[in-house]
Amino acid sequence: MSLGFYFDMTRCSGCAACRTACQDRFDLFEVGFAPRRVHRYQTGTFPSVAGYVTSVSCNHCEKPACVENCPTGAMFKNKDGLVLHDDDVCISCQTCLNVCPYGAPQYIEAENLVVKCDTCNALREGGYLPVCVDACPYRALEFGDLNELRLAHGDDLVQEVSVLPSADVTGPNLLIKSREAALESGYREVTY
Fold first, then answer.
1. Are 4 and 59 in contact (CB under 8 A)?
2. Whole-prediction pTM
3. In which domain, by residue range, is 180 found?
């Protein structure tokens, strides 16, 4: 069984409730970032433009570069195949930040601490969903067994879109119901 996230780009409004819930769970409002990030993109030129949103965090990869390159074993895969981080073993060398093609691990300088998505492991052990999934008002995020998510959401799912690295690099445990525009090259990130 491989656990991972499902993201339905066709349902996401870009409201960032997932990011806010993640920031709150990790108590990261003061430092201004969160393990889950929301980005907006545009493709095309006027009058033929299209837009889409991505909601990304650690993809709990099959071949995680952060685990392979961590000198202390602070980054590791648990029995469920999730990539976790042990603060007590971490020496804050930031190697994981430099090798992750998704930019998932983040460094909080004020606390000399690396943070990343742990799929709200402690909450899930208590029977709850990850906070990002629970917070999404459009139900654009799900978490679970990837085979079950594929069965539930069909065959048109992808593991990469034009703004993400090739899935061949690390084997992300991420399934995306994509918008057509997200598969095109020539995108640009937009801020509102």
1. yes
2. 0.93
3. 3-190
Per-residue pLDDT tens over the stretch 17-64: 999 999 998 888 887 778 999 999 999 989 999 999 999 999 999 999
111 — pLDDT class (breaks 50, 70, 90): confident
CATH number at residue 8: 3.30.70.20
Six-digit token string for 55? 């909601």
SS3 assignment for the chain: CCEEEEEECCCCCCCCHHHHHHHHHHCCCCCCCCCCEEEEEEEEECCEEEEEEEEECCCCCCCCHHHHHCCCCCEEECCCCCEEECCCCCCCCCHHHHHCCCCCCEEEHHHCEEECCCCCHHHHHCCCCCHHHHHCCCCCEEEEEHHHHHHHHCCCCECCCCCCCCHHHHCCCEEEECCHHHHCCCCEEECC
Burial class (CB in 10 A: 0-12, 13-18, 19+), 105: buried
**What's the Cα-to-Cα distance from 114 to each of 55, 76, 126, rounded to whole Å?**
20, 14, 25
Q: How many domains does the chain have?
A: 1
At 94 the pLDDT is: 97
Q: What is the C-alpha to C-alpha distance for residues 46 and 188, in angstroms, rounded to an integer?
A: 14
Contact 55, 18 (CB under 8 A): yes
